[in-house]
Amino acid sequence: xxxxxxxxxxxxxxxxxxxxxxxxxxxxxxxxxxxxxxxxxxxxxxxxxxxxxxxxxxxxxxxxxxxxxxxxxxxxxxxxxxxxxxxxxxxxxxxxxxxxxxxxxxxxxxxxxxxxxxxxxxxxxxxxxxxxxxxxxxxxxxxxxxxxxxxxxxxxxxxxxxxxxxxxxxxxxxxxxxxxxxxxxxxxxxxxxxxxxxxxxxxxxxxxxxxxxxxxxxxxxxxxxxxxxxxxxxxxxxxxxxxxxxxxxxxxxxxxxxxxxxxxxxxxxxxxxxxxxxxxxxxxxxxxxxxxxxxxxxxxxxxxxxxxxxxxxxxxxxxxxxxxxxxxxxxxxxxxxxxxxxxxxxxxxxxxxxxxxxxxxxxxxxxxxxxxxxxxxxxxxxxxxxxxxxxxxxxxxxxxxxxxxxxxxx
Amino acid sequence: xxxxxxxxxxxxxxxxxxxxxxxxxxxxxxxxxxxxxxxxxxxxxxxxxxxxxxxxxxxxxxxxxxxxxxxxxxxxxxxxxxxxxxxxxxxxxxxxxxxxxxxxxxxxxxxxxxxxxxxxxxxxxxxxxxxxxxxxxxxxxxxxxxxxxxxxxxxxxxxxxxxxxxxxxxxxxxxxxxxxxxxxxxxxxxxxxxxxxxxxxxxxxxxxxxxxxxxxxxxxxxxxxxxxxxxxxxxxxxxxxxxxxx
Lengths: 410, 246
Prior knowledge:
The complex is a heterodimer.
Chain A: H1 3-15, H2 18-54, E1 60-65, H3 85-92, E2 100-115, E3 118-127, H4 131-135, E4 139-142, H5 147-152, E5 156-159, H6 161-167, E6 177-180, E7 183-191, E8 196-197, E9 200-201, E10 205-209, H7 210-216, E11 227-232, H8 238-252, E12 263-267, H9 268-311, H10 313-321, H11 326-362, H12 373-400, H13 403-408
Parallel strand pairs in A: 3-10, 5-7
Antiparallel strand pairs in A: 1-11, 1-12, 2-3, 2-11, 4-7, 5-10, 6-7, 8-9
Chain B: E1 2-11, E2 18-28, E3 33-37, H1 44-51, E4 59-64, E5 67-68, H2 74-84, E6 85-88, H3 100-111, H4 117-127, H5 143-155, E7 161-165, H6 173-188, E8 192-197, H7 200-203, E9 208-213, E10 216-222, H8 230-235, H9 237-245
Parallel strand pairs in B: 3-8, 3-9, 6-7, 7-8
Antiparallel strand pairs in B: 1-2, 1-4, 4-5, 9-10
Helix pairs in contact in B: 3-4, 3-5, 4-5, 5-6
């Protein structure tokens, strides 16, 4: 039998049983599309988690009041009030922390910022002039506040791009007033756009002198200092800085047992590692879900193919009687399975691509899924494996049918 | 051409065997027209399946063109079926999803013949008078038409042996007559024909009648030995039947 004829015979086998062929293709499409979508989501989520912590700055060591960061990547604001201005002063001292450039306290809350008829809920952060350098913000216009503004608790703010767009859609925000917690603040600067770090919009913030926040906006229930950002002189020395910070604060708080520390120190590398661990777990979980989906699909296809062999025993017998060998029958059913796999694979990749894009548009809380070449490769492999895997056993069964038995079953 | 030496065929498990044939000895010469007759369940279809290399004997030897079929591989047997044998079954055994044309070209497909395929297929289609139905699905034809297509398929590879299992059993009398005429013509063209039937008037067309009962050959009698015109053959049905039964 010529190879071209083998393809032709299989093709006719499929088109003349098109309902069954269609069901098979749908099974493969579902499997392949779900793999693409799951892998794309996993990829996007892990990328997001990493980007979110990397966006903090590679050379930062962050000090939280104890209990503030329970899960490593949680960047929630501090809840205990164990950090004080004295701690900041101690950490700024190069005798205590020789590898640090500066220590910047922050506190904040999520609240409404109002300008005229426009209101926008955002993160309002109180800090010191070093914040911009520590977090990598630059000004697009206006100016920052200096130490004098902190000392005097001046009601001035620097606003991010998103806030500027939301509450000053038509006017230049510089020298305008905004209302926060019934207090007027003057806009003195605007940060240059930073974009998203993962799902976190880095342009959605308002920054003011920490003393102004304490005096005018921060509820007494919240700790006065929620984080201290300690900037290392280079990313390579963050581990040293973490040790120096820990020792300094233990001494300052009169604690001898590090296990009893009322603060936590985390380097950005710690956070990246945590994020990566989380992402890995996530990818495995989605991988397992995909495998289960595939198994279910594969078994469905196999039972469909087995039923096919039973129904087509007569046809197989006729083919055997007119001269088809076992290999011819095996080949026919395998090529049928392969054609279904290719068809289902191609359609599945298209559906998966569309589905991933759609998912990004519909579920906005999810980072936009990224369809990678690897995802498509995996999906193509999957189509081949379920198609041929599920087709192999029925094909062998078909080829082993005795010609007489097959002809008898009319 | 075919020689059966003490051939037996049993089905089922070793503990409860069902004997379909035992101790069958038979020689079929090249160019013969042999009818195998017997009541249903007598083992005549089993015998035909063995001769047709669709099945292998459980005991004894079956020589097909000098080769012992029990020693041959599946591939070799498939090749013999493909090149040397044409089957005509009672239920036609066409692939219902395929067209008339596609059914007839099947043996050529498995033989790997590509260049002459269309010409050969068209030739036998015309021979059985079904050219006008070439693109019809086989399942939509009448019984008589289906059997003519089946005969065309049996002929397309120009086999030396035609095996027919109750070829007139499921079709109307007029079609049956056409089918028998076709078989006689094929015999006249030096093909070997083995025909299984329980109908004595059908068997009468053959040169030789082998009567089988309870899985063994009871007697070998003579059919209408002289090749005659189809019209003449239908006239001699009754006496021929007597000859066969005697």
